[in-house]
Design a protein that fits this description.
The longest helix is centred in the first third of the chain and has 43 residues. The radius of gyration is 46 Å and the shape is flat. 16% of the residues lie in helices and 36% in strands. The protein has 270 residues and is of the alpha+beta class. Strand 25 and strand 26 form a beta hairpin. Among the domains are: 43 residues; 34 residues, no CATH class.
Length: 270
């Protein structure tokens, strides 16, 4: 009985030893496989590149940039400096130069101009405006002033004057009118109670049951609520039976449940 038990124990120990040896063999095989993959990956990294821990497998070192599956040296042209990046050109032009066909060409600043803040272009001095590759003086007429804008003529007229071609002419404000701040129109409007007719401000004649309107166009007056404009007068709105003055105040609508029919309010047929 004792010998049998010893035999069984020996068998169990032998089986455990075999299982342990199998696990070690699998682990060693996996390690060798991983090492082989790593060696293959490392061998795929080109010269002047380093492995990355994320994204793509490798990137170029500073001073080099990716070209197909290799890293080529960045050639910095004259009047440029290295950006120490592996993307783009790898260089930028110095102030006063701009990129032109893989090189840095000097920015030619015209007379009466200066390099802008970025150093990549130029701007004209005050009193001049860009025209092609030159800075041309703005000719401001009498009674005008220079405006710093790239639109228009580069000048505007003083208050009380209006542009007429290359001149600033005085605005003729009629009696009962006043100047307005606008570069369009005649440059003036009529006082309240007057309306523009031609070059004059004519008094608005408000009819009975009317009042002055706030706008400078039209008749210059409107009828009170309950009245309707007829020619130059305000006539009372004739409200039929079972009706009331409408929202506008110059017409009528039928009371519910009546409806309009030939100028009257009638009940709808059932």
């Amino acid at each position: 009985m004792t010998s049998v038990r010893r035999l069984r124990r020996g068998s169990i120990h032998a089986m455990a030893l075999k299982l342990a040896l199998a696990i070690v063999a699998v682990s060693l095989g996996t390690a060798f496989a991983q090492d082989a993959v790593a060696q293959g990956t490392l061998s795929a990294i080109p010269e002047n590149a380093v492995a990355r821990s994320y994204g793509s497998r490798w990137e170029c070192e500073r001073g080099f940039r990716k070209a197909d599956n290799a890293c080529s040296a960045v050639e910095v042209p004259a009047n440029a400096y290295s950006t120490n990046t592996s993307f783009g050109l790898g260089w930028k032009c110095k102030r006063g130069y701009r990129e032109a066909a893989e090189a840095c060409a000097i920015i030619v600043v015209p007379e009466n101009g200066y390099l802008d803040t970025s150093g990549d272009g130029w701007t004209c001095d005050r009193g001049y405006r860009e025209t092609g590759d030159a800075c041309i003086a703005v000719n401001v007429p009498e009674n005008g002033y220079f405006v710093d804008s790239s639109y228009g003529d580069g000048w505007e007229c003083e208050r009380g004057y209006q542009a007429d071609g290359e001149r600033c002419i005085a605005i003729k404000v009629p009696e009962n009118g006043y100047l307005v701040e606008s570069n369009y129109g005649v440059g003036w409007e009529c006082e309240r109670g007057y309306r523009a007719i031609g070059e004059a401000c004519v008094v608005v004649k408000v009819p009975t049951n009317g009042y002055l309107a706030g706008s400078s166009y039209g008749a210059g007056w409107e009828c009170s609520r309950g009245y309707l404009a007829v020619g130059e007068s305000c006539a009372a709105v004739k409200v039929p039976e079972n009706a009331h003055i409408n929202f506008s105040g110059h017409g009528w609508d039928c009371d519910r449940p009546y409806r309009k029919q030939q100028g009257r309010c009638v009940l709808a047929a059932k």
